[in-house]
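Lab notes, practical 5.
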Amino acid sequence: MSTQLYVTSVEEMQAAKRQATQVHDGLKGVTVGETRLSQVDGEHGKLCYRGIDVGTLAEKSTFEETIYLLWWDALPTAEQLATFSAELAERRALAPDIHRLLQVLPGAAEPMDALRTAVSALTCTVDDDGDRCHEASVKTAMALTAKLPTITTAYYHYLNDEESIPPDPTLGHAANFLYMLHGERPTEMESCAMDVAMLLMADHGFNASTFAARVTSSTLADLYAAITTAIGTLSGPLHGGANRRAMEMLLAIGSADKAEAYLTSALAEGQRIMGFGHRVYRHVADPRSHTLRRMLYKLCEQHQRMDLYELAGAVADLMATKKSLYPNVDFYTAPILYLLRVPLTLFTPVFAISRIPGWTAQVMEQYANNRLLRPLARYVGAEHRAYIPLDRRRA
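Output from the prediction step:
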């Protein structure tokens, strides 16, 4: 037995030494684990949740149903879905202390910073007994999923010296978010558009924020800590925020007939056109963009804003022609959120609200088959440096 353990240890050391000589910047092309949650096929432009195509889910399902699928690896029955949706609705309200926290944050705090702070504070409202089983984790995941829209909209109202709008338990998850934001019930089309956008952003493999959450949870830290990590990672401009900048670009262009001149100038100056290209879907369109473009058409038609649809389409067509780049999930999400009257400052928090089911599902998957995530680094610094005593050092 001891000999076998010794041999295994030596083999692991040799493998680690070989691996240490191969550096993959940004972990590009490195497979670090297995998942049963979302299949991201960058070569063929496909995305599936638990084996079901996201386009099919967006057409036939709902955000709540998709959450259930991610957490329990099964589509719910009508009775299960009704019970689940009711349980989510029951958890939307925030404790008075969380409201007070949001109200006393510095006025310059970005909504993503407020969201991260509030999620971290939520852990102080519960007792963590260290139980990382699926049942216990689902209860926490429900609370987080239900409360993130309430946190986001409450903070937005407090920033504008307004009273927060309590959640409406009779509305679905997406519709309730819009209600808490505007104080009026959205139309059926608006609710559907918000629901589809959330569904399509629910999970997407080991992206930066998801991987960060899995690293945190691999230490067996609780779900609140893992999601705080994920939100912090999403706040970075190279991960979240592309939807907002895509909308700012569309507003700057103004109309379809001005798109070519704008893009020609921007590309000549080496500017990055936001909402195009993807780390995984390098040579094909992001599969989520097809559904979002169709949804944008319907929403523009209802709002009599076909000019916005034509503008977005012109930019997409020109980018395909000029750079062979295709829209990612952010590009068409941006005008959808704009038509739903979501403030630009809340575009990235909406991404977090949409991704929370995937983040929590990924954390639960990590807990179920956990191994501490601890990569190697190749040292490239100085060697054999002499120590200089303090009294002999010179600036």
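Observations recorded by the TA: The beta strands are 38-41, 46-49, 52-53. Residues 1-7 have pLDDT under 50 and may be disordered.
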